[in-house]
Amino acid sequence: MELRSPITAIKGIGSRTEQRMQKIGVYTVGDILLHYPREYVQYKPPQKPSEIRQEGHHAVIGRVMSVPVLKRTNRMELVQTKAGDLSGTIELVWFRMPYMKSKLKLGEIYIFYGKAKKKGRSYCMEQPQVYTFEQYQEKMQTLQPVYGKTEGLSNQTILKTIRQALDALPLSYDYLPESIRKKERLCEYNFAVSQIHFPDDMQQLILARRRLVFDEFFLFLLNIQFRKEKKGSVHNAFPIQTETVIPYLLSHLPYDLTRAQKKCLDEVTADLKSGCVMQRLVQGDVGSGKTIVAFLCMALMGENGYQSALMAPTEVLARQHYETFVDMCKTYELNRAVILLTGSLTAKEKRTAYERMQMYPDAMIIGTQALIQEKAVFQNLGLVITDEQHRFGVRQRETLAEKGASPHILVMSATPIPRTLAIIIYGDMDISVIDEVPARRLPNKNCVVGISYRNTAYEFIRKEIEQGHQAYVICPLVEESEELDAENVTDYAKKLQAYYRGEITVGCLHGKMKPAEKNRTMEAFAGGEIELLVSTTVVEVGVNVPNATVMMIENAERYGLAQLHQLRGRVGRGEAQSYCIMVDNAQSRESKKRLDILNHSNDGFFIAGEDLKLRGPGDFFGIRQSGDLAFAIADIYQDADILKLAAEDVKWLLDADPALEKKEHKALLAIVKQDREEGFSL
Question: Is residue 540's pLDDT more than 80?
Fold first, then answer.
């Protein structure tokens, strides 16, 4: 068995499990080892049934108070019993586990671990794990990994598969030079992979994670530097001869650009007029007005006879950009073809789009990843813009750029990364920042509340919808988890449907839906057919609904502050007052301190800076910036210190050995070459 062996090489993985593994991005044995835990569960001290105060995961100690009974209903076997003491009991149920009847002895004391649910005046626990006191004491010393999974694929199956892979694979050579490992006091790679999945204790877990985070940053930045060296300064083949369209449009817009927008526009146009190809990142806070800057630049390229392309991360967003650009060209009498190209277009519509791309060498072309397909052939492509860049890989951006002869590249991101980190991450690009929000937009009104506020929030949402507005509710999970106490989209949508009794149209959106289904849901919400959308963070990018005025975020303590800011940027895009309700389910001193920053500021760059100060190296239980740059385990906020170290070490290494020709660097060079072939993420 090798790292590149298919996942079916592991005993017990059949075709059905293979298909489920592929849904979480696991195709090979190596992939499963890189499928890192999303968080870890620490086993709590056991409680008596009478001490349970709320639903959620609990460890309950109790004596079996009634003889376990095996029942058969609707072709399903279940075992029922009660456990506890004189102060109270808890009902216990196991489905499809008939052996529990003989396993549990009347009068014996066990510890039951699982999710307690309210049932009348007491609680019930379904499918709890059963331990002796001694067994549970051992469990309390360990950390239980929790993985991202899909329907039909349990956490236990993933754990078992990883353990088999680790047992079967020979140890691989550590590719990181020993000089760097010693310099940064990094643990050995194989030890890190093993401990990230099965940590002996918190200290070993922190060591393992530090090594894997360093590797991710180091390899990423090394690739960036190699690309930078390779690319160098490329001659501008699309010189700007005339520039009357921008002053014309600025004089006719119904609003003035902000100071920051004007500065950014000046920097971009200076690049377009220079002798070299532009490589620029535009960082703009949510709602800062990046789209109008993109439109003005595309209009300028069209005025000079060049095509421009804008790639958006979702079909709905691409269509919204298209409709906006068509309206603007019509309103301001610009004789410019605007072409839409997405995957959902019919074969006939795609043929028409391809024909128009050949017909109009000065067109504005807007689309999704359909723009990088082989059949999409451009004419005189002078400018490539990628919107919400953290959703695309470097390879995708480069593939689009390769559609032309060294076009200008403009990357737009709404992720507020502190400048010090942005300079490192986007080392091959110049950076512009739009750090002002247009004056016509009202700032969000924010509040942080506990779970007791929910019904009040539901009624507030009802009032906003009655006034003709729309709302979001964000949950961290797609479906109920056996391991995690967090709200899930599936059950929450049903709960709200029952609460509003059909008076409000409730929709459901998450990343496991099929692309066509996701698009239909987002379009229905954008069109007003859905009034209240219950969603995961998939809405972070993807749809612009100016009519949405309320966002309620459940388990707000589980997100990084920058991501929370990204999420609430989905509301407040119209002229009406908008509101963000953050439900702090933990209500700990730490979560209150963090969320209070967001509660009192709408400035994304300030929030990102504060987040950077607050987050520590051991702080990785459930608040990863999952919506930010697509690293598997690293987090640019939480791991900013490691990012800076990796950047220094890349420079130190390349100064000493620019081509990685030395013997001790051969293994590292092989990894870099492999990353280049497969494409690496940004």
Answer: no
Task: Judge whether 48 and 184 are in contact, CB under 8 Å.
Answer: no
* Pairwise CA distance, residues 543 & 300, whole Å: 26
Burial 456-495 (b: 16+ CB within 10 A, else e): ebbebbbebbeeebbbbbbbbbbeebbbbbbbbbbebbeb
Tell me the helix, strand and coil percentages in the chain, rounded to 5: 45, 20, 40
CATH homologous superfamily for 445-601?
P-loop containing nucleotide triphosphate hydrolases (3.40.50.300)
CATH of 245-434, one of 3.40.50.150, 3.40.50.410, 3.40.50.620, 3.40.50.300: 3.40.50.300
Residue 625 in 3-state DSSP? coil
- Which has the closest alpha carbon to 538: 416, 626, 655? 626
348-352, 390-394, 664-668: least confident range: 390-394
d(CA 476, CA 582): 13
User: Does the predicted TM-score (pTM) go above 0.90?
Assistant: no
Domain 245-434 matches domain 445-601 at the CATH topology level: yes
Who contacts 652 (Cβ-Cβ below 8 Å, separation ≥6)? none
Measure the CA–CA gap between 606 and 597, rounded to whole angstroms: 9
Cα–Cα distance between 353 and 343 in angstroms, integer?
Answer: 12
CA distance linking residue 440 with residue 546, whole number of Å? 13
Q: Is the predicted pLDDT of residue 620 greater than 60, yes or no?
A: no
Residue among 642, 666, 677 nearest 210 (CA): 642
- Residues 303 and 243: their CA atoms lie apart, in Å, by 7
Pairing type for strands 122-126 and 109-119 reads: antiparallel
User: DSSP string covering 428-444, please?
Assistant: TSEEEEE----TTSPPP
Which of helix, strand or coil describes residue 446?
strand
Residue 586 pLDDT grade (very low, low, confident, very high; cuts 50, 70, 90): confident
How wide is the angle at C-alpha 514 spanned by C-alphas 511 and 516, nearest 5°? 115
Alpha helices in 244-289 (DSSP H): 245-252, 259-273
In the chain, domain spans: 44-141, 245-434, 445-601
Return the pLDDT at 226.
74
Burial class, 87, CB count within 10 angstroms (exposed 0-12 / middle 13-18 / buried 19+): exposed
Domain 44-141 has CATH 3.40.190.10: no
* Mean pLDDT value across residues 325-343: 95
Would strands 56-64 and 76-85 be described as parallel, antiparallel, or unpaired?
A: antiparallel
H or E stretch covering 643: helix 640-656
